[in-house]
Amino acid sequence: MPHTTLSPAPTTRATAPPAALSLEERLTLVNTQMTLRLDEAAVAYEVNTAHIPTEPVDLDDVVTLPLTPTLQPPPNAYPTPVAALLQRAHHRLLTGGWCSGALVDAEGARCLYGAIRAEARGDRGLESSAVTVLMDAIRRTFGDDVDSVPGFNDAWTNGRIPMRMLDQAAGLADARGL
Questions:
Q1: Cβ contact 89:166 at 8 Å
Q2: pLDDT tens profile 34-88
Q3: pTM (global) more than 0.70
Q4: What is the C-alpha separation between 166 and 168, in angstroms, rounded?
Q5: Where do the domains of the chain lie?
Q6: Contact (CB, 8 A) for 91 and 104
Q7: Of 41, 90, 103, 163, which one is least surrounded by beta carbons within 10 A?
């Protein structure tokens, strides 16, 4: 009879069950997974939309607030006369309304030039300086194609951009010490 030796059966170790993760560890793991997914989605979006021409959105054109006199306190005046005039004209348009095609419409709304003229109170030199600074501000943003303040004003269907240019012109005049 042949002699057979029995070798011991291979022993397998029982692996310990994985330790339960704490809440912080699970949150960190999920955060890492989500960050990876969001990064991949962002790259995919950039690749998929790279051929589409876009223009940046100016939030001043999107965000609107109620423009009633009771909700708009008078601004603190700039210390320089031209800047203060432009700021008053801006405030007049905010509270009294903006129009195109006329210095003053039937409801009392004014165009850019009409607001400057009203706030200049007959001082033609101050009015002229304010219009000059406003044209500089307009041309900085829209180029040299703009020929006059009334022409610029009448090119718009609403007053958001003309009033924003008036506000920028007030800042420009103040920076120049006018």
A1: yes
A2: 999 999 999 998 888 888 887 777 766 665 555 555 555 556 778 889 898 999 8
A3: no
A4: 5
A5: 23-54, 59-176
A6: no
A7: 41
